[in-house]
């Protein structure tokens, strides 16, 4: 058995202190890795099904080969890692606001996603995803006008429960329209949410995209001994 608890890293950010910790969980009899923002839990290695399904469902509806994909939010790395399982990925650009989170991956502190930062297809960018998504220069300011085949977003808890107040502007018609311009025609916007499907948000997506879908992703919850669910939103650029 490993030590019961260890703080692996932390950093002060404009949103609060972000930290990574490892603890031995007696319920699952294994090490659990968790990211917290102040006292709020952001991610846990106990619950990764929906993050992985975000990549799987998002790429499944994205046509073509040699895909250029943007991931918003690195976290524990499960969405990026799942995307890299596809042999259709040419490039994976991951936007992460915290230098500390990128450092954790570069130092391979997370066993399940070790090696992610060293993958030749991956570019880890320390920048604000939302600023890039709504900037006319997009995700590649050195190459203005470049589009991507898919955007996979996993940052806020949900469109109604954001980590930082300015993020709320993204989940509007204007914010999503700006992001859509950085997708190739037929490209995919996919987003994780911890809440149940939100009809109002689906209506906003419908004003910008086509083929909008909200999938509930169910998974076993070892803490409650029951089932829990998250939502993956999927939409296609017209």
Map the helices and strands.
Elements: E1 5-13, E2 16-25, E3 30-37, E4 40-44, H1 49-60, E5 67-72, H2 78-84, E6 89-96, H3 99-106, E7 122-126, H4 129-133, E8 148-153, H5 173-180, E9 183-193, H6 199-208, E10 210-221, E11 226-236
Parallel strand pairs: 5-6, 5-8, 6-7, 8-9
Antiparallel strand pairs: 1-2, 2-3, 3-4, 9-11, 10-11
Helix pairs in contact: 1-2, 5-6
Task: Tell me about this structure.
- The protein contains 6 helices and 11 strands.
- It has a single domain (47-236), classed as Rossmann fold (3-Layer(aba) Sandwich), CATH 3.40.50.150.
- α1 (49-60) packs parallel to α2 and α5 crosses α6 (199-208).
- With 238 residues, it is of the alpha/beta class.
- It has a 7-stranded mixed sheet.
